[in-house]
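Thread title: Can someone regenerate the structure for this chain?

I was given the following input by a collaborator and told the matching structure tokens would be attached. They weren't. Posting the sequence so someone can regenerate them.
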Amino acid sequence: MPRQSAILDGMDTPIIRVTDVHKSYGRGPNRFDALKGVSFDIFEGESIAIIGKSGSGKSTLMHILALLDAPTSGNVELEGVDTSTLKGTNLNRARNKTFGFVFQQFFLTANASVLENVMLPMKIAGIRRSERKQRALAALEELEMADKASSKALNLSGGQKQRSVIARALVNNPRIIFADEPTGNLDTTTGAVVEDILFDLNRDNGITLIVVTHDEELAARCDRRLYIRDGLLVNDTTEVAA
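Best answer:
Regenerated them for you:
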């Protein structure tokens, strides 16, 4: 059963606060409103599914939450900090230290080794190579991928690629993992294993998990489900543990 939502456990300080966020593209007759005034809080340790059909605005919302894009208007706070005040190096540092990313398309460098792929976020963070290697190997060991450290990413199966991506997401000890359709390119059995890994990290390590999906079965495993339709938050459902 899903864990009880952090908001029901009396935690009243959100790790992310979204207030009246709008996002528009284009101008005049070509303007498209992807988000139309979305507001909600996310609490540390929660698992949250953002659910919606293609074009609903769910991916736009994820990019804004992950500081990969900025809202046209409205406000996003990260641990009480107005993210619109973060620029340049400070923005990159906040994103790199706080978030880990697991994408459907993997985004691994095909001809680089698994170890090199996993070390990349730490290279961006300026961590010395010896520590990068040590932490990357530890993450691969946790994901049962240490024996593939020297293999090229192009030689991995889909499940192995996603395990490598999760290892890469973990190496900077993120507070939050964003998983965008994390099982979309996997068969049912492999997808179930990847789901278990993500929810174990949420439950055992206390990492906040934000899953973007149209898969109702995956969403049902989360503490909360935010339903997005035509750029609006139409439902915020909290699952209470039995």
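DSSP finds seven helices and ten strands in the chain.
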